[in-house]
Amino acid sequence: xxxHPGEPHDAGLSGRLNRxxxxxxxxxxxxxxxxxxxxxxxxxxxxxxxIATAGLxxxxxxxxxxxxxxxxxxxxxxDTERALLDKERDELARFPEQELEELAALYEAKGLSxxxxxxxxxxxxxxxxxxxxxxxxxxxxxxxxxxxWQAAAASAVAFTGGSLLPLAAILLPPPxxxxxxxxxxxxxxxxxxxxLSARLGGARPARAVAxxxxxxxAGMAVTYAVGALTGAAIG
Length: 235
Prior knowledge:
Blueprint (H helix, E strand, L loop, with lengths): L12 H32 L3 H47 L1 H14 L4 H23 L11 H24 L6 H24 L3 H30 L1
């Protein structure tokens, strides 16, 4: 029975918050990467074709790179988790009594008395020994292992969503206003993602927003200057 229904007691809440935070950070990467690219090109030319081509190429390349990196990372994590779970399953089959004592010792280390820890370990072992060890010893839920494909897709979607904002901001305005409009829109977007990521992580929003806005402004200023110098040299 939940005594305080307004409080989040869902066991998967932490995982969902982590995924949401990862999505915000992925979108932020898309904003920063694509903004730096298109504003750099805009420093060299105001022509729509080169800016659009560079922006779309950066969007696709970034989304593929993010998805591939996330897939490889999560696949490695999942392989490690499966190996740990298989090892634990084997140990439970071969040494059930030793594993029971280990489980009791883990609960005792958490602050339970030896008698209570032994009783808790015994009851959990009788119900589902593998689930108990996976939770207390490995801190894993065998039914909730991360999916590499879902992680890759989420990363690609988040990056693409973030990339579309600076791309639209620099292509929609008239040529003379492109760089300035994109610069302003990107800074506002970075402030929003900084605030959201800080709130999700329980940190102070002001500091996170300041870091992102100042870093983004500096990055765009540098890429614009490089584009302008390159365009002048080539032209």
